[in-house]
Amino acid sequence: MTSAQTTPPVMRRRLGGLLRSFRKEAGLTLPQAAALIEWDNTRLSRVETGQYQIKASEVKALLQGFGVDDQAATSELATAAEAGQRNWWAAYADVLPRAYADAIALESTVVRLRAYFPQLITALLQTPAYAHGTIFSSPSPTVRKNADSLVQVRQARKSVLTRPENPVVLDTVIDESALYPRSNAHSDVMRDQLLSLLAMMERDNITIRIMPLDAPPHPGLTSNMTIMDFRHPWPSLVSIDHIRGGVFLGEPDDVAAFSDVFDVVLEAAMSVEESRDKIKNYMEGKISG
User: Fold this and answer.
1) Domains in the chain, ordered, with CATH?
2) What is the SS3 assignment for the chain?
3) Do β-strands 169-175 and 237-242 pair in parallel, antiparallel, or remain unpaired?
4) Tens of pLDDT along 39-71?
5) Which stretches of 56-111 are DSSP H helices?
6) Rounded-to-integer distance, Cα 61 and Cα 163, Å
7) Which of these, 23, 166, 190, 261, has the minimum number of CB atoms within 10 Å of its CB?
């Protein structure tokens, strides 16, 4: 299988984008900034667009030249420049589209996730059997062929929620309709999934709320969303999944708009305690589809 020994492209692009922002804040043109470390314009331009790998020492030299005295930001960017170690998802490079690998790379560095997927349980909370069912429902023969490997990937991703140090904080809303088994044949799968949700709700870093069937219309119905927050100085992103993969939105206005929508979704959802009771009722068969 293909190995990955360099910083993922998405991480290079984000690093380059931040360097460009710091350069512009310093009021420097591309030629002026390149001259700080005796580079030509083309090389720095390629760094800023994520096409060229930069060393930690070069990051520090540029930021010093830009007059950046934020040591935390400098350390974070320098560390990112050296993040070329082999990551676990490299073992699945033959089945992972580039965009999916980018998403996993970002997910591995996130500190907080806010997620809402209408009629579907968030991927990070899916059991293997539930995940297999959702993945195998794809119309793509390639996806179905690689379903077992993709389930392994989805399960490995969950480690960000359970790692001993600094687990990701997850705040998610699940539609009540997602708690129904799709058929009697899947009742055991759904029961195990609900048991898993209840177990995950015991973790301090995970908050799960249920959107009731009788909830009024809300703006979250128009799109799934995952809002990703990172350590300083990395800007937040919004990830939207679709049939061909997904898209990232990074403009501050876009992030703010989706954050506002998520807040409205939270207001329409049940409390955590009510949500726990609702899941228990479905699991115990007190509510059936």
Assistant:
1) 9-81 (1.10.260.40), 97-131+158-283 (3.30.870.10)
2) CCCCCCCCHHHHHHHHHHHHHHHHHCCCCHHHHHHHCCCCHHHHHHHHCCCCCCCHHHHHHHHHHCCCCCHHHHHHHHHHHCCCCCCHHHHHCCCCCHHHHHHHHHHCCEEEEEEEECCCCCHHHCCHHHHHHHHHCCCCHHHHHCHHHHHHHHHHHCHHHHCCCCCCEEEEEEEHHHHCCCCHHHHHHHHHHHHHHHHHCCCCCEEEEEECCCCCCCHHHHCCEEEEEECCCCCCEEEEEECCEEEEECCHHHHHHHHHHHHHHHHHCCCHHHHHHHHHHHHCCCCCC
3) unpaired
4) 999 999 999 999 999 999 999 999 999 999 999
5) 56-65, 71-81, 98-107
6) 34
7) 166
Half-sphere exposure of 29 (CA within 13 A, CB side): 4
Residue 98 pLDDT > 90, yes or no?
no
> Taking the model in full, what pTM does it have?
0.90
Specify the residue for token string 């506002």: 260
CA distances from 49 to 20, 42, 142, 155, 240 (A): 9, 11, 31, 32, 22
